[in-house]
Write a structure and sequence with these properties.
This protein is an alpha+beta fold. It has 6 helices and 5 strands, in the order ββαββαβαααα. InterPro entries: XkdN-like (IPR014986), XkdN-like_sf (IPR038559).
């Protein structure tokens, strides 16, 4: 018989956190790049991101089917994994002239920086697939 207590919540490893330099453009007072703090999330949190990026659209024969906006889903996934900087901070959003964490992230980062961040967030959350494979999975 196996010991089920190994699977009890108090016996599992805590969520993973790590520092990641998203961009060399954000520097501290000494001129060193500032690392962002990322965390892993639970499947329940992931599902919440997916659901909030999913809409019912009229499909064939007039039936409504769920359709997930992949870009919106990935943005929500990334925002949920970022602990620092706080993308929900009103002053930070105001400094970029935008409202909302997902919009702020897109204003703050260059395309390559954003892609690197998305990839790192996927890795810390256990996705061992490419962006295209994840996008296909989300669509289904």
């Amino acid at each position: 018989m196996s010991d089920l207590s190994l699977f009890f919540a108090q016996n599992t490893a805590a969520e993973a956190t790590e520092k990641f330099v998203v961009s060399e453009r954000f520097k501290d007072t000494d001129g060193n790049p500032v690392a962002w703090e990322l965390r892993s999330m639970t499947e329940a949190e992931n599902e919440e991101c997916r659901k909030s990026a999913t809409r019912k659209v009229k499909g064939k024969n007039g039936t409504f089917v769920p359709e997930t906006n992949t870009d919106e889903y990935l943005a929500k996934l990334v925002v949920s994994s970022i602990q620092y900087p706080s993308l929900k901070d009103a002053e930070l959003q105001k400094s970029y002239g935008t409202m909302g964490a997902e919009h702020l992230l897109r204003k703050m980062l260059r395309p390559g920086e954003y892609a690197s961040l998305v990839q790192r967030v996927q890795e810390i959350n256990g996705f061992n697939q490419s962006l295209n494979e994840l996008a296909d999975e989300v669509k289904n």
